[in-house]
Amino acid sequence: MRMLIAFLVALTVIFCLFPFIWMVMTSFKTRILAIDPSVWIFKPTFENYLAVFTRRNLAMYIKNSVVVVVFTTLLSMLLAVFAAYGFARFRFKRKEDLAFWVLSLRMLPAMSVVIPFFLLGRFLHLLDTHILLIIVYMSFNIPFAIWMMRGFIEEIPRELEEAAWVDGCTLFQGVVKVVFPLVMPGLAATAIFIVIQSWNEFALALFLTSFAARTVPTTITFFLSVMGVIWGEMASVGVITTLPVLLFALFVQKYLIRGLTFGAIKS
Fold first, then answer.
1. Residues 106-128: pLDDT tens digits?
2. Which of 62, 190, 196, 211 is 20 to 30 A from residue 93's alpha carbon, by CA?
3. Alpha-carbon distances, residue 20 vs 209, 215, 253 (angstroms)
4. Which burial class, exposed, middle or buried, applies to 177 when counting CB atoms under 10 A from its CB (0-12, 13-18, 19+)?
5. Which long-range contacts (CB under 8 A, 24 or more apart) does 116-122 make?
């Protein structure tokens, strides 16, 4: 029975990883071989990787993505944590209605708000800038982070904060010195989701940027031409785009698991 379960797990993993494996293989093929997906044995080449950095200037788009993701994550977490604390700890009228309204902002399809954001960016002369993308991404990530962090904060016994207040801490010091360390797994898990969502976002970045602030996902359009799709270079960009998120997820893996299971078992 254990062998059968192990076999099924291995089969599922291979099935899930197959698209990524195929993309990695294609990125090391020549332009001619990349057209034929049936070729599995070939001499690998780095010409696609060299091409995307030399001819496509991929380094600039990676820098844009890093700037947007870092500031989006930091600002979203900073604002969302304190808002989540308010929802978790304070009582006020129509709190649940307001919390649901905040979450509903996250449910908006990106394409439904791209035109208002485009007009707003043009009016403020912010089109094709990092600032506009950061603001737009924050409008989606802050509601998500509030909803996530509210649950984590509610799991922390209020008596711990009250004990800190008795010892002389202010409300802010109690949050920083007591609540934040205890919800660190939740902070890490929420930050990971924000990083992944911001790094992979395509539609808004495509419509709101043209050159100076374009991010890595939008470069996929460079490889669609009248002559066909340049599969090798497209696959190499896909691999390069995946690696930072993959490494970041591996680095904070233990925090992610602790965050996702936080409060799952209660006495």
1. 788 888 888 999 999 999 999 99
2. 190
3. 28, 21, 20
4. middle
5. 117/204, 117/208, 118/207, 118/208, 121/208
Instruction: Give pLDDT, residue 263.
Output: 53
Three-state DSSP at 229 gives: strand
d(CA 68, CA 64): 6
User: What Cα–Cα distance (Å) separates residue 237 from each residue in 38, 157, 166?
Assistant: 21, 46, 55
Q: Report d(CA 68, CA 244) in Å as an integer.
A: 14
Residue 222 structure tokens:
């460079």
Tokens for 68, please give them: 């947007």
> Can you tell me the distance from the alpha carbon of 119 to that of 229, in angstroms, rounded to the nearest whole number?
32
What's the CA gap between 176 and 140, in Å, rounded?
25
* Alpha carbon distance 250, 256 (integer Å): 9
Residues 6+ apart with CB under 8 A from 229: 223
Mean pLDDT throughout 139-153? Answer: 90
- Say if CB 186 and CB 154 are below 8 A apart: no
Q: pLDDT at position 161, please?
A: 87
Count of all residues that appear for the chain in the document: 267
Bridge partners for 228 per DSSP: 225
Angle 229-233-235 from CA coordinates, rounded to 5°:
90
Determine the pLDDT at residue 55: 86
Q: Which one, of 51, 62, 67, lies nearest residue 235 by Cα?
A: 51
What confidence tens digit (pLDDT) does each residue in 189-211 have? 888 889 988 998 988 999 999 88
Considering only residues 255 and 67, tell me which one the structure prediction assigns the higher pLDDT. Answer: 67
Site of tokens 């908006």: 108
The CA distance from 97 to 103, in Å, is 10
